[in-house]
Write a structure and sequence with these properties.
The protein is mainly α. The protein is 77% helix and 0% strand. The chain has helices at residues 2-7, 10-24, 30-53, 56-61, 66-86, 97-108, 114-122, 127-153, 161-180, 182-191, 193-218, 226-253, 258-269, 273-283, 288-316. The protein is globular, with a radius of gyration of 19 Å. Mean pLDDT is 79; it is low at 320-334.
């Protein structure tokens, strides 16, 4: 139980509790309208805070690792989507159409920032490169994630010109406003980082509650069986194993040193729950958002467990070759 408690992220438990709350007490009628309005405001605030935190100087300093950053971006926004498209062959005998759309959305979400930095630090890799790579991925995701989702999922995901304009208004404009005002707001956000993190996490919980409430009201959960969920978990475990192995192998083939291969593996194979959930709330209409975020929530918990084990194992080995040893048998014993 102690080992299990190390792997279970308290925030993921809070997310699961929010899902259960939405299942038991979904927002309906006037309450649903109030929740939707609050969600819209908090998403805009969340991306404004993202804009205030991204230092242009840190981004410029990281440009000297441009080969590493381009490799991570290619992994996040090109290799992942290719796997998502290949998974279309699993419909309908293993995955439903809606779950596959959620899997595609997972594949176009940017890389995580906090956890990839933490894992890189634990594994004694290039932390500065992990910080820059996470920042670049988050910045690119504001533009690329909605565009790739529109291209890959299409009209069945609820996309239209109005949707893309809404994405720009709710995500891109607040982000750019945060960047423009960073000169005056960076000090405040730096001093109150812990308090503002509650805004981050609280807004995401609100997004999850709104999405799953809409899903309950629309009756989408009656369309998903336990065997389908187990199949989705197996597909995502195979996806994570493939990405870990490919990033490690690709890093060696591209001539990256051990310290740079560590952030490549963690940033390249991880997906951001914090960025993906608000985007899904804007991109997907009504109950579709619940099914869209379900694969991302499952993958996030899986990547935390597997990458924590990998980082601990690599931290105990010789620094020169620790990143060369990724267990070939998949994520469970990794």
């Amino acid at each position: 139980m102690r080992r299990l408690s190390r792997f279970l992220d308290p925030y993921v438990l809070a997310l699961l509790g929010t899902v259960l709350l939405a299942a038991a007490l979904p927002a309906r009628g006037t309450a649903a309208e109030a929740v939707d309005a609050a969600t819209t405001g908090f998403i805009a605030l969340l991306f404004f805070l993202y804009g205030t935190r991204l230092s242009a100087r840190e981004a410029l300093d990281g440009l000297r690792h441009w080969r590493l950053h381009l490799t991570i971006l290619a992994t996040t926004f090109a290799l992942f989507p290719l796997f998502g498209l290949a998974a279309r062959g699993l419909v309908p005998w293993l995955l439903t159409e809606e779950l596959h759309h959620g899997l595609l959305f997972l594949c176009v979400v940017p890389s995580t920032v906090q956890s990839s930095i933490a894992f890189t630090a634990l594994a004694r890799g290039n932390v500065a490169a992990a910080i820059a790579a996470g920042s670049f991925s988050s910045l690119a995701g504001v533009l690329l994630t909605p565009l790739l989702a529109a291209a890959l999922i299409g009209s069945s995901g609820g996309f239209s010109a109005d949707t893309l304009l809404g994405v720009g208004g709710q995500l891109l404009l607040p982000f750019l406003a945060g960047q423009a005002l960073r000169r005056w707001t960076a000090g405040f956000t730096g001093r109150h980082r812990r308090a503002l993190s509650l805004v981050d996490r609280g807004s995401i919980l609100l997004v999850v509650y709104a999405a799953f409430s809409a899903g309950v009201n629309a009756g989408v959960w009656g369309e998903i069986s336990w065997p389908r969920l187990v199949a989705l978990f197996g597909v995502e475990a195979a996806l994570l194993a493939a990405m870990l192995l490919l990033t490690c192998w690709g890093g060696r083939r591209l001539g990256f040193g051990r310290n740079d291969r560590v952030p490549l593996v963690f940033a390249g194979a991880n997906k951001s729950l914090a960025a993906g959930l608000p985007m899904a709330g804007v991109i997907f209409p009504g109950g579709q958002a619940a099914l869209a975020v379900l694969p991302l929530m499952l993958y996030h918990q899986l990547q935390l467990i597997v990458c924590a084990v990998l980082a601990r194992r690599w931290s105990q080995g010789p620094s020169g070759d620790a990143a060369d040893r990724v267990a070939p048998q998949g994520p469970a014993p990794a």
